[in-house]
Design brief:
The protein has 13 helices and 18 strands. With about 575 residues, it is of the alpha+beta class. Among the domains are: about 130 residues, 2-Layer Sandwich (Beta-Lactamase), CATH 3.30.450; about 180 residues, Alpha-Beta Plaits (2-Layer Sandwich), CATH 3.30.70. The strands form 3 sheets. Strands 11, 12, 13, 14, 15, 16, 17 and 18 form an 8-stranded mixed sheet that branches. Helix 10 crosses helix 11. The protein is rod-shaped.
């Protein structure tokens, strides 16, 4: 896969991931905001319900306080408590006041709140039931008190409680009837009102808030179905004062809030609920709009990614092509620097590198011209250090015979051309045998076998090379217009090899008496002859034809030097 394609796909993936994360974050934010808004509305609804309840019951409380303080009421209650009165007397003596308090339609005279009934309780909390049917007594309430006579007698002289009676939820207000003499409780007046939830509150942009009462495991009120009681009861036992509860009503998601409504009983909870369908619709609309916007963003991102990728891939491709050309040895390649960023800087550095490689090759070429390639390679690689070492090696000197008369009648250009052709041919002979051309001195060639790296057959290879130099020269003389005759001298032994010269100009060479001897043997050898010293002769293998010479008296040596003339050699002998 191309770099531009990978870069485009990577940028497209970034756009898609960013879009997806943005949509997820936005939907989560919408959900959270909607739920928080519902919880705020639920809390406000609960405060409203409690405030309306307290306002409606305030008039009832005032009327009941006045009622239980009437002399005939506590007189009738005292007579009943002492066993001198009857239940009918109690209700008869208070009927006028109760009739004034209750209408026949069982509505509270002040406040207009429908009443389910009233009941007098004795000191033990048992209902005092009249024998007649003219009193506003709720039989179901009476039966409950027969089962639970003590439970209702808890708390202060006045309190509010909620009761589950059959399929109804009642608000019960208790008022103690005091004894005027000692203030003790003679009995209790209980007044009952059915729980009526407030009308459903309309929510702008959402479903109406619905209210109910969760009491003793049942859900009361006509706004919420009773089937929700099981889910609500499951979460109602949580110790937290306010509980959030998810619901499923008619297959749709709802959210409910449960809050205690009776300060004396935490099991009585006001339920406020609303559908979450509007929230899901809002999230769906957000996702659709986000997908639409994201699609546009993706298209724009694709265009930007493609353009950017191509803009980045072009210089990378140019760099790759240029690097390939450099790998093939074309150091003249240059990259255009048209950017001011890192890629532009990379192009500049590449151009500097190719310029350095060009200069390196130029210098290397010059080094190869002025020094033997083998020596140059080792010097560049660091395997030839500065200074000298003593090493066994063979050295060859090859000189042209009668060179001065040969050049007298020729121009300088002709002389240089003649020498270059001669030196080139004999240098190839040296390289063919694995030797190193040490230097050219006028018409003289100096070659070394064994330095900087030696081998066991250095002397024999040097001898074969010397014979081949003579033969090569004879071959050239058959075609050249100007025949050249050479004499060759070869010597072997320990010599000093290394880079020598000044601090600013060094030359790799060999020094020692064996080098001087090879030069003297070269001078003594006639045209077409190769002279070798005793150490070379001792290292020649089978197949050589040599002729012993009279010991030579050479300059620099006190005693005559033994020498041999090489005649021929056979490789397979």
């Amino acid at each position: 896969m191309k770099f531009a394609t990978r870069l485009s796909l990577a940028m497209l993936a970034v756009v898609l991931v960013a879009t997806a994360l943005g949509l997820l974050a936005s939907s989560a934010q919408v959900r959270g905001a909607y739920r928080q808004s519902l919880m705020d509305l639920f809390q406000a609804e609960a405060r409203t319900v409690v405030a309306v309840r307290d306002a409606e019951l305030k008039a009832v409380q005032a009327q009941c306080r006045r009622l239980v303080a009437l002399p005939r009421v506590f007189a009738a209650m005292g007579a009943w408590a002492s066993g001198e009165g009857h239940a009918d007397d109690l209700y008869d003596r208070t009927s006028d006041d109760l009739k004034e308090f209750f209408r026949r339609a069982r509505e509270v005279a002040s406040g207009g709140k429908s009443a389910a009934g009233y009941l007098f309780l004795d000191r033990g909390g048992k209902p005092i039931e009249p024998s007649g049917n003219d009193a506003d007594i709720d039989a179901a309430v009476g039966r409950r008190w027969q089962r639970e006579p003590v439970a209702v007698q808890q708390g202060a002289d006045e309190r509010l409680a909620y009761l589950a009676v059959g399929d109804r939820a009642l608000q019960a207000m208790y008022f103690a009837v005091p004894d005027p003499e000692d203030g003790s409780r003679l009995g209790t007046l209980a007044v009952f009102f059915p729980f009526v939830p407030p009308q459903a509150m309309a929510v702008e942009g959402g479903s109406p808030l619905r209210t109910g009462l969760l009491l003793e495991g049942r859900l009361y009120g006509d706004q919420l179905p009773g089937s929700a009681a099981a889910e609500l009861t499951r979460d109602a036992g949580v110790e937290a004062e306010v509980v959030e509860c998810p619901l499923r009503l008619d297959g749709q998601p709802w959210l409910a809030r449960l809050q205690p409504i009776d300060a004396g009983d935490a099991s009585v909870r006001l339920v406020t609920a609303a559908s979450l369908v509007p929230m899901h619709e809002a999230v769906r609309r957000l996702l659709l709009s986000g997908l639409a916007a994201g699609s546009v963003g993706v298209l724009i991102g694709v265009v930007v990614a493609v353009v950017t990728a191509r803009g980045l891939a072009r210089p990378v491709a140019q760099l790759s092509e240029a690097a390939t050309r450099v790998g093939r040895g074309d150091y003249a390649v240059r990259l255009p620097v048209v950017r001011g960023d890192e890629l532009g800087l990379l192009a500049e550095r590449f151009n500097e590198m190719t310029l350095g490689l060009t200069l390196r090759d130029k210098y290397r070429g010059l080094l190869d011209l002025v020094a033997d390639p083998g020596i140059a390679e080792r010097m560049i690689g660091g395997s030839v250090g500065l200074g000298g070492v003593t090493t066994p090696a063979a050295v060859i000197f090859c000189d042209i015979r009668g060179f001065t008369p040969l050049t007298n009648s020729r121009t300088a250009h002709e002389v240089v051309e003649l020498l270059n052709r001669h030196m080139t041919a004999l240098t190839e002979v040296v390289y063919r045998h694995g030797g190193v051309v040490d230097k050219f001195v006028g018409d003289l060639i100096m070659a070394v076998f064994g330095a900087p790296r030696g081998a066991a057959d250095d002397a024999e290879r040097a001898a074969r090379c010397a014979l081949d130099m003579v033969r090569e020269r004879e071959r050239l003389n058959r075609t050249d217009a100007v025949p050249i005759q050479i004499g060759v001298g070869v010597a072997f032994g320990d010599m000093v090899a290394g880079c020598m010269g000044s601090e600013k100009r060094l030359n790799y060479t060999v020094l020692g008496d064996r080098v001087n001897l090879a030069a003297r043997l070269c001078s003594a050898a006639p045209a077409g002859a190769v002279y070798v010293d005793q150490q070379v002769r001792e290292r020649l293998g089978a197949g050589w034809t040599v002729a012993a010479l009279e010991p030579l008296k050479v300059k620099g040596f006190d005693q005559p030097v033994a020498a041999w003339r090489l005649e021929d050699w056979k490789e397979n002998a």
